[in-house]
From TrEMBL:
Residues 67-253 form the IclR-ED domain. Coiled coil: none annotated. It comes from Paramicrobacterium agarici. SUPFAM superfamilies: GAF domain-like (SSF55781), Winged helix' DNA-binding domain (SSF46785). This is IclR family transcriptional regulator.
Length: 265
């Protein structure tokens, strides 16, 4: 049992509100958290005084307040994903001798927030701060495959949403949907020459506390080398999945259930 029950109940309430699509009634909060209504109202009143929730009297509902938004902004300023991910990627690069990167989804693009270069490997376009089309990059495909279908469809409503870099990759939603279904089934994403000719990547998603794709990790390598990983990505997928699960654990996420055997084809 918690030694600070009021603090625990307050945090549970904030977490519950953060997961809702909009403001909710106090009765629903109390029922969902199995709290007496009097306790729920007392906690809500104190959080309202501190600015963490707001009461919408016309709707008789409660939602998150400005103070909660400031927590979110502070989280972004602290750059936890890049700070937690950088040492993991550095160790991965040292182990496999290929370049690795960590990216987040931003609309139809991926935004690279960590880039770890391996010695004597080609320069990559995926430097920190660079944006690339999500439907072409392994990092983007890994995350898109974990999103609800309607959200992916909203991101790519027609052919004008598809960016072409090397004349490879999906150019319409039906092609992207098949690719994402395969990605979800296999548990990893690949791309070969769609971002840069001669370079291929393998990527896996990093999930947050509700199973949402918070980021993705990918390894990039020369696809035409005799020892290229494109022919057999299974060993890379195993290491990437391990690193992704560890980063997910560090951000208090729920690591994806990786396939027990890697399906190729």
């Amino acid at each position: 049992m918690s030694k600070a029950p009021a603090a625990q109940q307050t945090l549970r309430m904030l977490t519950f509100l953060a997961r809702q699509r909009g403001p909710v009634a106090a009765a629903r909060i109390a029922e969902a958290l199995e709290l007496p209504r009097s306790t729920a109202y007392q906690l809500l009143a104190e959080m309202q005084r501190q600015g963490y929730v707001v009461h919408l009297p016309e709707e008789r509902r409660w939602g998150l307040g400005v103070a909660a938004f400031e927590l979110s902004s502070g989280y972004a300023r602290h750059e936890p994903l890049s700070r937690l991910g950088r040492p993991l990627l550095a160790a991965l690069v040292d182990e496999i001798g290929e370049s690795a990167h960590l990216a987040v989804l931003h609309g139809r693009d991926v935004l690279y927030i960590v880039e770890e270069r391996a010695p004597r490997r080609p320069h990559l376009v995926s430097d920190v701060g660079v944006r690339l089309p999500a439907q072409l990059a392994a990092t983007g495909r890994a995350m898109l495959a974990q999103l609800p279908r309607h959200q992916v469809r909203a991101l790519f409503p027609d052919r004008t949403a598809f960016v072409d870099r090397t004349s490879l990759g999906p150019s319409r939603y039906s092609e992207l949907r098949r690719l994402l279904d395969d990605t979800a089934r296999h548990g990893f994403a690949t791309e070969n020459g769609e971002i840069t000719p001669g370079l291929a990547s393998v990527g896996v998603a990093v999930t947050d506390h509700v199973g949402w794709p918070a980021a993705s990790i990918a390894i990039t390598f020369e696809s035409d080398r005799s020892d290229a990983h494109a022919a057999d990505p299974a060993p890379l997928v195993g290491r990437l999945s391990s690193v992704a699960n560890e980063l997910s654990r560090r951000i208090r996420g729920n690591p994806l259930a990786r396939p027990s055997s890697i399906e190729l084809g």
